[in-house]
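Thread amino acids onto this structure.
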């Protein structure tokens, strides 16, 4: 007989547990009966119920809007900072050159080739 892999049965088993927990919480079933159907002790059933309810509260809590921030590779982050620093230096050099060209005497400007 071919039994499905245990990992393939996990979602169905989790769904069954969730359904039984909801039936117990809504008063349609006793905890003892749910534990019997699941093949576990009542103590184990209550542990699962506590875990399930805690997970539901966590899942339904408020979250930040938008996409979660992506983790950035430290090397990539360092390269981005380096690029920004070099762009800032380039801008300063370009501004300095523009100022220098404005303040040069007219006779030196005529000797310089156009940019």
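Threaded sequence (115 positions):
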């Amino acid at each position: 007989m071919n039994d499905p892999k245990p990992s393939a049965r996990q979602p169905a088993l989790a769904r069954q547990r969730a359904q039984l927990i909801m039936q117990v919480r809504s008063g349609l079933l006793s905890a003892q009966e749910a534990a019997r159907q699941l093949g576990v002790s009542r103590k184990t059933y209550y542990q699962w119920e506590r875990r399930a309810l805690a997970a539901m509260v966590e899942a339904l809590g408020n979250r930040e809007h938008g996409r979660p921030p992506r983790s950035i590779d430290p090397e990539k982050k360092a390269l981005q900072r380096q690029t920004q620093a070099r762009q800032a230096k380039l801008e300063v050099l370009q501004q300095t050159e523009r100022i220098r060209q404005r303040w040069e005497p007219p006779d030196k400007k005529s000797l310089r080739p156009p940019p």
